[in-house]
Amino acid sequence: MPSFSSGRALIAAVMERYRALSAYSDVGQVSTRLRNGEHVLTFETTADAGGNFRFTFQSPHPYWPLRHKVTTHIVGRAQGQSYLYSLTSSGQARLENIAELRSGVAAATGISAGAAHTIAGLLYADVGGWTFANLKRPRRRAPRVVDGVLCHRITGLQGRTPVVVYVGVEDLLLRKFADRKSRAVEVRRHVDVDRARPPEHFEMPGSNKG
Q1: Which residue, 163, 75, 82, 162, is CA-closest to 112?
Q2: Angle at which helices 115-123 and 101-109 cross, to 10°
Q3: Handedness of CA 97, 102, 106, 112 (dihedral sign)
Q4: For residue 147, what pLDDT is reported?
Q5: Which CATH code is given to the segment(s) 7-194?
Q6: What is the pLDDT of residue 66?
Q7: What is the pLDDT of residue 210?
Q8: Confidence (pTM)
Q9: How far is CA 70 from CA 8, 27, 116, in A?
Q10: Among 39, 57, 144, 200, which residue carries the largest CB count within 10 Å?
Q11: Which pLDDT score is estimated for 63?
Q12: Neighbouring residues of 55: CB distance < 8 A, sequence distance ≥ 6
């Protein structure tokens, strides 16, 4: 088990780990407790060392009685071209080319309860914005098991918001992120860094290539 002298040293090792990956994928969800129940957003992330990226998430309608109406969103980058895509439950699709991935991630961050930025910010320096490296007052706490994986547990501040971050002890990959202010819990499962996806996986929806 790797040892770290401080929470800041652990954070640096996690950032270095993500920036060196040749492939990445996960599936997960963000659960947020609201007055009228729990809002659950599901997502899938894939990326490669060439800069290709795809974050797909399903967002239920914000009005509780209409939660069965789900919109699919994708923010991605394929061969240097970034895009935003959405498909409503009624079948209405929208595709937008954007100049930079950071703009697409920023646009998707709010509606994805922050999940669009979590891994993108770890993988790519050009995404910008808040990343794990910006955690204020990081403190290492007693390890916890998340979905069968023993994890380092780090507490700190995201701006003024208390958060808890869980990263695997052996692989230094993020498994859970909890925001104590909004009561949102982001969990990532089936994390894989060995299986590269073919280039066509990252292409814009509706592309005729491949």
Answers
A1: 75
A2: 150
A3: positive
A4: 95
A5: 2.50.20.10
A6: 64
A7: 42
A8: 0.91
A9: 39, 17, 17
A10: 57
A11: 65
A12: 43, 44, 45, 74, 75, 76, 105, 108, 112, 115, 116, 119, 120
